[in-house]
Design goal:
Length: 716
């Protein structure tokens, strides 16, 4: 035998032996640790709560347990423990838990709170005071730093606690159907809050919704004896919806003006913002069919309509998710993010509604506008860039339209521009990097290396993830992730667990540490499984053409793409094609059950958590966008309904639901279980008492044990 070949064989044997020895010395990852410690002990190290101090090159961040506040500078070589929460509590006479939520008033003072008690602390003289002590049931707090006024809600009404200690009653509705100051439209259209201060703090705008005609949905509280029913307002597809409006309260006059939809009373009002001069407000109105959007201007003092700045229509849907962005405080010219050319891009308008220029024409998705340069000439925004798995940062010059990629390393980035505009913080992770953070000058030179996280799982038996692509039947590129065990043997046959979501506004595979996967997937791989995920048509960050193919036919092209993934799995010599299982939650629960019922025999076992089983039971805002109203799309609703296909079940199916789920109500699973009973078909059902749409806390360990051991025991 050739000596070189012999040497290579011996070397290979030695390497394999060394790898096995190294693996044998590593710890087994328990399922409990995988569930409970992913975002604690195993989370990559980073500068938590990074914030720049105004007008300086200094910055602060928290210790990992949020008990200490550290300070450093771009030129500094040492991170200094500046304050402990114990010291701050001693000065303030407070009982703050940690520094979480700290914000800087200026370079010398910070605000800190525990949710109802709000304090200001001066670092020059180490003195501070409480500026707001709110009622214990206060919620939805919104602070204005200029005036130090605090807006908040108690139940369905809005209040203001002023910086001089006065309590103002903004709304006083005894009717619980009239809800003010909270997010509306069930948080669709990018709506995350219901209170908005004007720039000068003299006006407070708030969402208000009239839910009088919305049906009550009962939830059972088993913690009382006897059990007691409570109800939520739940607008199901095709039924009566909430009626929104926007109130604007003037602190000087103590008067409120209201703005209602110009079209139908149940149109949606979204993307609220004040203009820089506070004279006007911009509101995007979307019709209930969600195929027509108007961006309207209203007088902030009177609430009167001024003009429509722009309109967008679609034969599928329009979905504005970003308020107008004003690049200059001296002008009401604004930037609008629109998907009208197929991808989210930036459009620059004057205040008459005239398009000044389309700033970007990228064939990838703009995610959000981050900030402006100090001179107002340049916008920084996040976008996927050339790979939809990334979150990169770009700048665009308003005048020239010159676009520059700021973050050079592919991955998922965080970006914070310094107050003086000279530096930016860049923290990122990717497939091979847990987390790295650096400070750069805005002219592209690295100013300071901050940290590189060690691999927290290096001492554990952890498999590997492979990211690849497939071509869908329509020619689309489909991204996939395959997790293999640490002792993977290509000569063995492995069962597969397919983890699926498959719906809008979600992307399961990202170029980040662990590639968007949960640690329980790696635990499952160590039990002798392959864990597979595919982001198909309908999922996020791919542009309108890719995402909108699901319109009026949920569970159709999504299934087609998942089966493309299944065909690929079956082509692999190390896959046991007779032992495929599937699991998902919410839309993923709908997909899991759809795959079990509409492609019977492909999967041996399935576990569906909180599944939509019939879209007529789901909420208007989401359901009607993607399926239209039931009376407009009877065939589509019938085909998508899992009750239609219940008789096709082959294999083992477990349905799981939180008993007080207020997102996908239990009627979904109850209706499907009843259908199975009517048909005489056996399946499994497990409720989680007093849990909502998902199962959190320590009970999540129980959930994942239930899910994964069911797969192991039944995927045979």
């Amino acid at each position: 035998m050739n000596k070189l070949i012999l040497l290579l064989i011996v070397s290979s044997i030695g390497t394999a032996f060394s790898q096995k020895k190294e693996l044998a010395n590593k710890q087994e990852l328990t399922l409990k640790d995988a569930v409970m410690k992913q975002y604690r002990d195993f989370y990559p190290d980073r500068l938590n709560g990074f914030q720049w101090l105004a007008n300086t090159d200094c910055y602060t961040f928290y210790s990992k347990n949020y008990q200490s506040l550290y300070k450093s500078s771009v030129s500094g070589t040492k991170d200094t423990e500046w304050y402990t929460i114990q010291k701050v509590n001693e000065v303030l006479g407070s009982e703050l838990y940690n520094f979480y939520g700290l914000t800087w008033k200026n370079e010398n003072e910070f605000y800190i709170n525990d949710g109802v008690h709000f304090y200001v602390y001066n670092t020059v003289n180490d003195k501070g005071s409480m500026i707001h002590g709110l009622d214990e049931d206060a919620a939805n707090t919104e602070f204005h730093s200029g005036t130090e006024n605090m807006a908040y809600t108690i139940e369905n009404n809005v209040y203001i606690h002023t910086g001089i200690g006065l309590k103002l009653i903004v709304t006083d509705n005894a009717d619980k159907n009239i809800v003010s100051g909270q997010s509306i439209a069930r948080n669709e259209f990018g709506i995350q809050k219901g209170l908005f201060w004007s720039n000068d703090g003299n006006r407070l705008a708030f969402y208000q919704k009239d839910e009088t005609e919305v049906h009550d949905y009962p939830l059972l509280n088993i913690n009382e004896t006897p059990g007691a029913l409570s109800s939520i307002k739940y607008p199901m597809a095709g039924q009566k919806s909430e009626k929104p409006r926007v109130g604007i309260y003037d602190l000087r006059t103590k008067q409120t003006v209201f703005i209602s939809p110009k079209g139908n009373p149940d149109d949606y009002l979204t993307n609220f913002t004040f203009t820089p001069d506070d004279k006007y407000v911009l509101i995007a109105e979307v019709n209930r069919d969600q195929n027509h959007t108007w961006l309207n201007v209203y007088d902030a003092a009177t609430g009167k309509f001024v003009r429509t700045l722009l309109e967008e229509t679609s034969d599928k849907w329009t979905e504005p998710e970003h308020p107008a962005f004003f690049p200059s405080s001296a002008s009401n010219n604004f930037i609008w993010i629109s998907e009208k050319d197929g991808f989210n891009n930036l459009y620059y308008y004057d205040f008459t509604g005239k398009l000044i220029k389309q700033l970007t024409s990228n064939k990838f998705v703009t995610k959000d506008i981050l900030t402006m340069s100090n001179d107002g000439k340049k916008i920084y925004f996040s976008a996927t860039g050339e790979s939809p798995l990334n979150t990169m940062v770009y700048s665009i010059e308003i005048k020239s339209g010159k676009q520059t990629l700021i973050t050079k390393t592919e991955g998922t980035h965080e970006f914070y521009l310094s107050g003086d505009g000279k530096y930016y913080y860049d923290g990122y992770s990717n497939h091979t990097t847990p987390y790295v953070s650096k400070i750069w000058t805005t002219n592209g030179k690295m100013a300071k290396f901050l940290n590189e996280s060690p691999e927290k799982l290096a001492g554990y038996k952890i498999g590997t993830a492979e990211i690849s692509t497939l071509t869908g039947k329509d020619g689309s590129t489909l991204y996939t992730r395959l997790i293999k065990p640490s002792n993977f043997d290509p000569n063995k046959k492995y069962p597969v667990l397919v983890y699926v979501y498959g719906g809008p506004h979600a992307q399961l595979i990202t170029n980040s540490w662990l590639d968007g996967a949960s640690l329980w997937m790696y635990w499952m791989a160590e039990q002798g499984y392959l864990v597979y995920t595919l982001d198909g048509r309908g999922s996020a960050e791919r542009g309108f053409a890719f995402e909108s193919q699901i319109h009026r036919q949920l569970g159709t092209v999504e299934i087609e793409d998942q089966l493309t993934g299944v065909d690929y799995l079956k082509s692999l010599p190390y896959v046991d094609a007779n032992r495929l299982a599937v699991h998902g939650w919410s839309f993923g629960g709908f997909m899991t059950t759809s795959l079990m019922l509409r492609t019977p025999g492909v999967f041996t076992a399935g576990v569906a958590g909180g599944p939509v089983t019939d879209w007529k039971y789901y909420e208007i805002m989401y359901g009607e966008r993607y399926m239209d109203r039931p009376e407009e799309n009877e065939k589509g609703y019938e085909q998508a309904s899992l009750l239609t296909h219940a008789g096709n079940l082959k294999g083992n199916l477990l349905l799981i639901h939180g008993t007080v789920d207020d997102v996908v109500v239990m009627q979904h699973n109850f209706a499907l279980v009843k259908k199975f009973v009517d048909l005489g078909i056996q399946m499994d059902f497990f409720p989680y008492p007093m849990h909502k749409h998902n199962v959190g806390g320590k009970d999540r360990v129980h959930l994942m044990e239930k899910v994964l051991y069911y797969v192991i025991d039944n995927n045979k």
